[in-house]
Design brief:
Elements (H helix, E strand, L loop, with lengths): L1 E2 L2 E2 L3 E4 L4 E5 L10 E4 L2 H9 L6 H18 L3 H12 L6 H15 L3 H41 L5 E5 L15 H9 L4 E6 L7 H11 L3 E4 L4 H6 L5 E4 L3 E3 L4 E4 L2 H10 L4 E4 L5 E2 L5 H4 L8 H4 E5 L5 E5 L12 E4 L6 E4 L2 E3 L3 H7 L7 H4 L1
Parallel strand pairs: 6-7, 6-9, 7-8, 9-12, 10-13, 12-17
Antiparallel strand pairs: 1-2, 3-4, 4-5, 10-11, 11-16, 14-15, 17-18
Helix pairs in contact: 1-2, 2-3, 2-4, 2-5, 3-4, 4-5, 5-6
This protein binds 5-S-methyl-1-O-phosphono-5-thio-D-ribulose.
Length: about 375
């Protein structure tokens, strides 16, 4: 996607520097800073402290981290150490484990001298695949949006609501939930997007920045506004992303997603989740019981970051000093609240049968389920 007319991805390989560069998202939307990742510690910090964020991007970043580790030391011990070191950075988004497992499985079978170059080639492959998966999610989601536009029949904008940032910044490109929006806008469908601010980190500001750069009409709303807008007929469809979707279609996404799904259900509004297949955790069935939910630092809630009138980025305390806070970063939306999953292979029901119908090659066999 473009930033001030220049095409960017959220991370890219700089051949001159022989290193990965990322957009350091901690400073957006106020400042556009690029960071070069030079060490494995840089990779771990970038993921844990959210210089990069969003499930697919975390996975792609980890693959490049593995490539760096293999260039420095291709031994079996270094391979496992790298897996462990990067895996402990963030617990909820399954793409991290998916990417590390894929790298380990491919590399461990190779002689040591081939591991460095092969790991880098694999990281490129994972990044390119992510772009294509998200492009297809956009094409499939476009059809749903076009259908809603046709049903409205009056040419008025399709009003979408989204939570967090499941945009191109959260993937290598396109985004998941935003990809159908970009495709619909580019196809000439009139849209208006309600953007949840998504406290505590306000990833909605990233979504607003993205949509604004693409010329898509949108308004930034408080996290508590969605239910009200739905009750008054101002939302036609909800689309969110996901950090981990279980084999029965439960969806774990940024905290607050569940409440949006409840409100959508109460108001008969379709609630769709954009789901790249690497975000499916086939080892887990019951999301509420089984998915580990990340606890993030208290400062994310007790403080808020913004830009001052002089353009400085500052952090301000919003709670009384010493107030204890709790900061669970994700929640689980049970499958019965999800209208459908928009995947790279089509749209399916949020159910075991639905996912298995689109991904028979990935779903555990019936024999393995008992
Ligand atoms: O904590 P974050 O910012 O990494 O959380 C991101 C989300 O919850 C996204 O909705 C999710 O990763 C889907 S991204 C395409």
């Amino acid at each position: 996607m473009k930033v001030d007319g220049t095409p960017y991805r959220s991370l890219w390989w700089d051949a001159d520097a022989q290193a990965v560069k990322i957009i350091d998202q901690r400073w957006l939307p106020h400042d556009f800073r690029i960071e070069q990742l030079n060490s494995l510690a840089d990779y771990a910090r970038a993921i844990k402290d959210m210089h990069v964020r969003g499930a697919p991007l975390i996975g792609a970043t980890a693959a490049y981290g593995m490539a760096l580790a293999m260039r420095l030391d291709p031994s079996d011990a270094a391979l496992q150490d790298c897996w462990d070191f990067l895996h402990q950075t963030r617990p909820t988004a399954i793409n991290l484990r998916w990417a590390l497992d894929r790298c380990r499985a491919r590399l461990v079978a190779l002689p040591l001298e081939r591991r460095g170059p092969e790991a880098l080639a694999l990281a490129h492959e994972i990044a390119e695949e992510d772009v294509e998966i998200n492009r297809r999610i956009g094409v499939n989601g476009l059809q749903l949006i076009q259908q809603i536009a046709a049903n409205k029949g009056d040419g008025s904008p399709v009003r979408l609501l989204t939570h967090c940032n499941a945009g191109w910044l959260a993937t290598v490109d396109w985004g998941t939930a935003t990809s159908p929006m970009y495709h619909a806008h580019d196809a000439g469908v009139a849209l208006h997007v309600w953007v949840d601010e998504t406290r505590p980190r306000n990833q909605g500001a990233l979504t607003a920045w993205e949509l604004g750069s693409h010329g898509i009409s949108h308004q930034y709303i408080t996290d508590n506004a969605g239910g009200h807008l739905m009750q008054h007929g101002l939302v036609d469809m909800v689309i969110t992303g996901t950090d981990r979707t279980t084999r029965q279609g439960d969806v774990c996404n940024k905290i607050g997603t569940y409440l949006k799904a409840l409100a959508a259900n109460d108001n008969n509004i379709p609630f769709y989740v954009a789901l790249p297949s690497p975000t499916i955790d086939w080892t887990v069935r019951d999301g509420v019981a089984e998915i580990p939910i990340e606890d993030r630092p208290a400062e994310e809630i007790s403080h808020i970051q913004g830009s001052s009138a002089t353009g400085d980025i500052a952090s301000l305390q919003v709670t009384p000093v010493g107030t204890e806070v709790a900061n669970p970063a994700f929640d689980v939306t049970p499958n019965h609240l999800v209208t459908g999953l928009i995947t790279e292979r089509g749209v399916c029901a949020a159910s075991e049968a639905g996912l298995a119908s689109l991904f028979p090659d990935l779903a555990p066999s019936a024999a393995a389920q008992v």
